[in-house]
Amino acid sequence: MFTLLKTLSPDAHDHYDLAYRYSFEDPENSLVKLRACALIFIELFYQHYELYEAPQERERLTLYDKINNPQIRHILPFYIREKLNYLRVMGNKGAHPGSSFRSHKAALDTALTALQTAYKIALWLYEMLYPQYAEDLPAYQAPSHTDSDKVYGDAVVRDDADARYFLGMMFRQRAQHATDTEKQQEYWQDSAYWLRKAAQQQQAAALYQLGSLYLHGQGVAQNTEQAVHYMTQAADAQYADAQFALGCLLFEEPSETAHSYPQDHAQAFEYFMKAAQQEHLGALNRLVQMYYEGLGVAQDVDEAFYYAQKAALAGYPSAQFKLAHLYQTGLGVEKNEAEAFRWYQEAAQAGDADAQLVMFKCYSNGLLVEKDMLQAIEWLQQADAQEHAGAAYYLGLAYKRGIGVQQDVVRALNLLKRCIETDSLHQYEAAKLEFAQGVAQLRQSAVQAATHKDSPPFRQQQHVAEQEKVGRNALCPCGSGKKYKKCCLRRETHL
Question: Is the dihedral of CA 360, 282, 343, 426 positive or negative?
């Protein structure tokens, strides 16, 4: 079975072999390897039909571009394009396993399907390139958990770089989920040990992950120079995550943090572009901002739209939000409010807090959708759960005035205070005035309650903790998450 792949391409054989052997132990990495196979398969197709018009076109086109190029649609069968696209999308998910798969089993099932898909493409390609030898080709045989290579044996006995990398990642995952501090540190050190072993063999992913440990001081002493050293090696080996990470270091302004780095937008752009050519979603998203604002490259809203659309279609929420904004403003594309709303909704459903705030505004004002305050508040609460300053501001106003929710001045003040504390860009300065007015409103209500003992509504709300006999050290009933003595009790004593 593997001889067929080696005939097509030694590199494709190596990637497929690793994906096959470690599918049970490391299915996410298997998906990344199979995406690399897809890129090699489409390259062989392009070379066979001499489809490149210029040498630089090969570097410019991403896997998505090559698969969906209109020029080859009448040559490459639809079902093969679909299979290549499947390997591309699943490979992108495998590169970001933390947010892509709900469980190890889900990742494993996907990897096993992708293995068979890749082999079917290889069979088709072999029959096209070598029709004279296409008889009696071996059928696909699924890997078995019982006879798959044991990772520790590969790492310790056979010095296999990929097995060492997998062990490093396994210990890293354990460190991230450990609750015991001492055990967590032990896991980080084990992770660094195996990643260093794999990095010594120039395993690109291990070089990147080891650099990440040095950047954040996990299992090793924090050292930005060492981090950049390892990440640069990984980036030179065309590892997209490393190219993106270096781009981010160069993009951000220098700060007082331990891992600050001199800002260089032009060099950051180069790294983001290299990663984007491998369809790194984060890099595609960054290029939208750089072209839109003219950072490190000449401002070009058409290019901003191009990269926003690519990342949005790949399911990147932040890019979907940016694409919606471009449709809304008519920059880089003809203005289309309906299409803008569709992409805002896509981004909001995918968890983008900025988009969720936009959906609140649409539903609360009846913009491109029927007015629905309950739906509006739901979107607002989802954004507030992500500690979005704007969501805290508008939700605070809603509770302060009783719009869409039952009026609750105490909760409103908590939300407005959180907005003030998290509004680093000073976009919601009005929150300070609203907060001051809310405090004054509470004081006035307290005075009225004290002078009109026969009119207890607000007093009942303010002293609900007393009525329910809440202890000083119990959670405050207002829902702030603080102890009663540090929240409403303190507020009452200062009214």
Answer: positive
What is the average per-residue pLDDT within 410-416? 94
DSSP bridge pairs for 480: none
* CA-to-CA separations, 14 to 5, 7, 33, 301, in angstroms, rounded: 9, 12, 9, 41
pLDDT at residue 469, as a whole number? 55
- Give 346-415 as a 3 state SS string: HHHHCCCHHHHHHHHHHHHHCCCCCCCHHHHHHHHHHHHCCCCHHHHHHHHHHHHHCCCCCCCHHHHHHH
Is the model's pLDDT at 172 over the cut of 50?
Answer: yes
Q: How would you label 359-390 residue by residue, b for 16+ Cβ within 10 Å and e otherwise?
A: bbebbbeeeeeeeeeebbbbbbebbbeeebbb
Token pair 């990495």: residue? 29
Backbone phi and psi for residue 483, each to the nearest 5 degrees, phi listed first: -70, 150
Residue 298 to residue 277: CA distance in whole angstroms: 19
Coil, strand, or helix at residue 475?
strand
Structure tokens at 476: 């405050």
At residue 489's C-alpha, the angle toward residues 485 and 494, to 5°, is: 125
* Whole-angstrom distance, CA of residue 100 vs CA of residue 106: 10
Q: Return the H-helix or E-strand segment holding 24.
A: none
Q: How many CB atoms are located within 10 Å of the residue 470 CB? A: 18
Task: Output the CA–CA distances (angstroms, integers) from residue 157 to 151, 171, 196, in the order listed.
Answer: 10, 19, 17
The two structure tokens encoding residue 318: 């932040």
Instruction: Tell me the CA distances in angstroms from 385 to 168, 381, 391, 419, 432, one per residue in order.
Output: 33, 6, 9, 12, 21
Residue 495: per-residue pLDDT: 41
Q: How far apart are CA 85 and CA 42, in angstroms?
A: 11
Query: What integer pLDDT is reported at residue 335 of this predicted model?
Result: 94
Q: Is 303 exposed, middle or buried (0-12, 13-18, 19+ CB in 10 A)?
A: middle
Find, among 175, 188, 245, 182, the residue nearest to 220 by Cα. 188
Give the architecture (CATH level 2) of 358-462. Answer: Alpha Horseshoe (1.25)
Q: Which residues contact 236 (CB under 8 A, 6 or more apart)?
A: none
**Is the domain 1-143 a CATH 1.20.120 member?**
yes
Q: Could you tell me the residue ranges of all domains in the chain?
A: 1-143, 358-462, 468-495
Distance, first Cα to last Cα, the chain: 79
At residue 471, the 3 state secondary structure works out as: coil
How many other CB atoms are there within 10 angstroms of residue 302's CB atom?
A: 11
Rounded to the nearest integer, the mean pLDDT of the chain is 85
